[in-house]
Design brief:
single chain; 102 residues; mainly alpha; 3 helices
Length: 102
């Protein structure tokens, strides 16, 4: 999961405690947060902002972010499936119950 972390989250967020030195980076969460802030500030739907539909640029940005999320989601699901399979094999060897995903 570590290689995906920088794509998914703002790993340079100092409010998240970690014992590791994290790389500087954006992250999809930050990109979505910036778009949300844009839509809910001046020119968006928030108090004092201009009312109306999102701009074509904002909608294009959302489509771009959604495409990135779709690819990342597939990668994360593949990693989780592989890791859960490995984990379940080990716990089965120990006579324990593994993780069940429905």
């Amino acid at each position: 999961m570590a290689p995906l972390e920088g794509d998914l989250t703002a790993v340079d967020d100092r409010t998240i405690p970690t014992g590791e030195r994290r790389p500087e980076g954006g992250g999809l969460d930050r990109e979505y947060r910036a778009l949300f802030g844009h839509l809910n500030s001046a020119g968006g739907y928030g108090p004092g902002g201009t009312e109306g539909r999102p701009t074509s640029g904002a909608m294009e940005k959302k489509r771009d972010l959604d495409a990135v999320w779709s690819q990342l989601k597939n990668r994360v699901e593949a990693v989780l499936e592989r890791e859960i399979t490995t984990f379940n094999a080990e716990v089965a060897r120990l006579g324990l119950v593994g993780i069940v995903v429905r």
